[in-house]
């Protein structure tokens, strides 16, 4: 293996190596030495070394020094990219257009969100009776640098009181503030230690929220696996809040939500042991001192109550219906044997919303939206005509309202908002963005390719019209493949800038996602997780075989579970792509469940203690444990954040340390650690622009470009 000289910040620039008439820029990075410790874990008699375990301690000064040193090296490298300033200017300029959210009514006011363009956080406005809109709540005033973001907004039933949550530095830990709507003043002490929580009002008296006890040790990395639902009555201190459900030592419910139906008739409790599957209980407020009634006492399905009409409950479920259906049942006998189908399961995945006394059945047809309107008896009212092929979101409003709104977008069309009449089905454009991007110059096409085991997998490929299929187009292959999450077409400013440079953006709908229901999800979990990686590899091979790109011009990218995807693929197939971009990734598969809420991911991953077979399977693809010496890995930019308490940054720290120690060749392995940011939600616009400037700059530079591709004469 080629030994790398240890020097804190020294960089040696080597230029002039030509490849395919594009200048390839090689930069030798002299990495700082990361201390190795003799930590060994034993699983089923097998010893596993963990030399960088010390980096898990996010509170130690030693870890802080390591982070600072790595950031210094990374930023020194990025400063040498000649078009970095130009790239940031283009990202900023394109981002700088007005963005508006769909309006909604609470009490006497109509509310909506708006961002003038480059504001770090969206601002909420309100108006009534034809008056001009006024600023109602501006999260940009919460902090100077925009690192305190707004989470949930929940109004009391009369619209006179607002409870809203805030997140500091991107943490999943939140606080709830209570505001008098008319005066716009906070009226109670702050509720703290809130996490993974809705805010659900009961009448105008108080609300339900969820919390964990603050863990012993670091609140950003220590395990939290006993969720609890509390009721807060207005005018009382948090210490007097009533524990409603959770906290029993005999069973760990890691996610529990308490939700009140719109008519204030019922409290619905949905305990979960993991991210998939829930129990279901209901309390009838119309009967004094009524107990919780059990609807489901197992976690074999994802089932929730979406509406009620008096004693009749409407549920969305995948119990014996992998693609989901809507059923109804009387509260007197609510268990599954009494359920009656209202909207039966189809071959497409159902995701409903309610509004104006109707169900809006949103189906995914090969990841493309299709929406139908039904009455509460399951009669089809109409199929809603959408503006094109893409993703429609919304169609939700209160039962008594006749107008609702939906947004529509795809990979080359910025989201617009449409106004929809529940009674007539008439659709009108409500708001369309004015943006310096010509959607008509781009195209997005869906293809189906074959994975290793013969499974057909869809992929959307988006690029400029007239793209020459010469194998030299810079391409980002983006994937996720987990947790029943679907990747549907949506516009991204950052991807628009990438495509302006002649880039291709490709998104396959991998197994493990939710695009084809429960079976598709399950096919990418536990000891079938390799299917996800194989699907992604096959997507890359399709792009190469069809001359969209080649390995020299291919980057693989994904975040969170998608970061795991990138880490696994780059260690299994190091020659597949030129650049690897794992973001906030789950990268240590033997220890992921020991941090924060990670134990709740076991449905998808399994755990190393579960069985010897599961341990060996996890170790077989865990990125941290599969970096090998004498291998030239792709140019790698790992991105994470110091306040990420969803997927703790130690995953990325340990992966970076392994790569820097073991890799050979000249491809750089860098880690970019954002400060005062978390897993992604609520990240300020300024930080997002900076991050994508670095990610795209690093990617193009390592593909051999020393000017932006659209500046190269064809």
Description of the molecule:
By secondary structure, this protein is α+β, with helices and mostly antiparallel strands. 17% of the residues lie in helices and 34% in strands. The chain is built from ten helices and 42 strands. Strands 35-36-38-37-39-40-41-42 form an eight-stranded mixed β-sheet, sandwiched between helices. Strands 5, 6, 7, 8 and 9 form a five-stranded antiparallel β-sheet that branches. Strands 10, 11, 12, 13 and 14 form a five-stranded antiparallel β-sheet that branches. The radius of gyration is 26 Å and the shape is globular. Residues 1-23 have low confidence and may be disordered.
State the end-to-end distance. 40 Å
Q: How many β-strand runs?
A: 42
Overall 3D form: globular
- As residue ranges, the low-confidence spans are 1-23
| Major β-sheet strand ordering | 35-36-38-37-39-40-41-42
């Amino acid at each position: 293996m080629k030994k790398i000289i240890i020097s804190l910040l020294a960089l040696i620039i080597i230029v002039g190596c030509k490849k395919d008439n594009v200048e390839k820029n090689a930069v030798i990075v002299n990495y700082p030495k990361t201390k190795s410790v003799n930590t060994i874990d034993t699983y089923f008699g097998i010893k596993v070394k963990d030399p960088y375990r010390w980096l898990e301690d996010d509170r130690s000064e030693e870890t802080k020094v390591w982070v600072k040193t790595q950031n210094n090296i990374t930023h020194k490298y990025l400063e040498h990219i000649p078009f970095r300033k130009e790239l940031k200017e283009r990202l900023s300029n394109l981002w700088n257009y007005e963005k508006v959210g769909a309006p909604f009514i609470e009490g006497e006011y109509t509310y909506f969100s708006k961002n003038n363009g480059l504001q770090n956080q969206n601002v909420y406005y309100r108006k009534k009776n034809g008056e001009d809109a006024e600023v109602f709540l501006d999260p940009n005033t919460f902090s100077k640098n925009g690192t305190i973001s707004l989470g949930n907004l929940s109004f009391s039933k009369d619209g006179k009181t607002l409870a809203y949550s805030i997140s500091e530095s991107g943490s999943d830990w939140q606080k709830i503030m209570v505001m008098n709507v008319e005066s716009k003043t906070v009226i109670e002490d702050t509720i703290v230690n809130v996490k993974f929580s809705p805010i659900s009002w009961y009448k105008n008296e108080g609300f339900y929220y969820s919390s964990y006890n603050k863990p012993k040790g670091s609140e950003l990395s220590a395990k939290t696996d006993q969720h609890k639902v509390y009721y807060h009555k207005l005018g009382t201190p948090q210490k007097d809040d009533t524990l409603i459900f959770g906290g029993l030592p005999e069973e760990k419910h890691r996610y529990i939500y308490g939700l009140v139906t719109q008519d204030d008739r019922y409290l619905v409790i949905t305990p979960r042991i993991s991210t998939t599957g829930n129990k279901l209980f209901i309390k009838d407020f119309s009967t004094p001192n009524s107990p919780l009634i059990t609807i489901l006492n197992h976690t074999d399905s994802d089932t929730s109550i979406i509406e009620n009409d008096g004693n009749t409950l409407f549920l969305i479920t995948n119990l014996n219906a992998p693609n989901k259906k809507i059923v109804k049942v009387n509260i007197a006998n609510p268990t599954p044997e009494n359920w009656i189908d209202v909207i039966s399961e189809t071959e497409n995945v159902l995701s409903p919303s309610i509004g104006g006394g109707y169900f809006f059945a949103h189906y995914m047809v090969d990841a493309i939206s299709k929406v139908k309107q039904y009455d509460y008896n399951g009669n089809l009212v109409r199929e809603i005509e959408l503006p094109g092929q893409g993703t429609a979101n919304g169609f939700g409003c209160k039962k008594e309202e006749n107008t609702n709104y939906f947004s529509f977008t795809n990979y080359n069309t910025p989201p617009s908002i449409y106004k929809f009449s529940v009674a007539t089905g008439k659709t009108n454009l409500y708001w369309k963005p004015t943006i310096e991007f010509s959607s008509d110059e781009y195209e997005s096409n869906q293809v189906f390719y074959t994975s290793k085991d013969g499974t057909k997998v869809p992929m959307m490929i988006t690029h400029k019209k007239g793209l020459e299929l010469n194998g030299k187009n810079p391409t980002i292959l983006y994937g996720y493949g987990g947790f029943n999450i679907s990747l549907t077409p949506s516009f991204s400013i950052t991807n628009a800038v990438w495509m302006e440079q002649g880039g291709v953006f490709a998104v396959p709908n991998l197994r493990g996602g939710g695009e084809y229901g429960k079976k598709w999800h399950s096919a990418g979990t536990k000891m079938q997780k390799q299917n996800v990686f194989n699907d992604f590899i096959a997507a890359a091979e399709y792009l190469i075989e069809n001359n969209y790109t080649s390995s020299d011009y291919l980057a693989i990218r994904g975040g969170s579970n998608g970061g795991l995807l990138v880490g696994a693929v780059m260690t299994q197939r190091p020659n597949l792509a030129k650049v690897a971009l794992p973001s906030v990734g789950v990268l240590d598969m033997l220890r992921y469940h020991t941090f924060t809420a990670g134990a709740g991911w076991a449905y998808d991953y399994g755990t190393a203690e579960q069985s010897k077979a599961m341990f060996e399977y996890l170790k077989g693809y865990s990125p941290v444990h599969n970096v090998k010496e004498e291998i030239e890995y792709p140019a790698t930019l790992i991105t994470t954040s110091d306040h990420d308490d969803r997927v703790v940054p130690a995953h990325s720290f340990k992966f970076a340390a392994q790569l820097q120690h073991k890799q050979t060749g000249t491809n750089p392995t860098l880690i970019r650690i954002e400060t005062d940011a978390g897993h992604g939600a609520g990240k300020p616009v300024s930080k997002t622009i900076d991050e994508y400037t670095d990610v795209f700059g690093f990617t193009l530079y390592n593909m051999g470009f020393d000017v932006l591709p659209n500046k190269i004469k064809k």
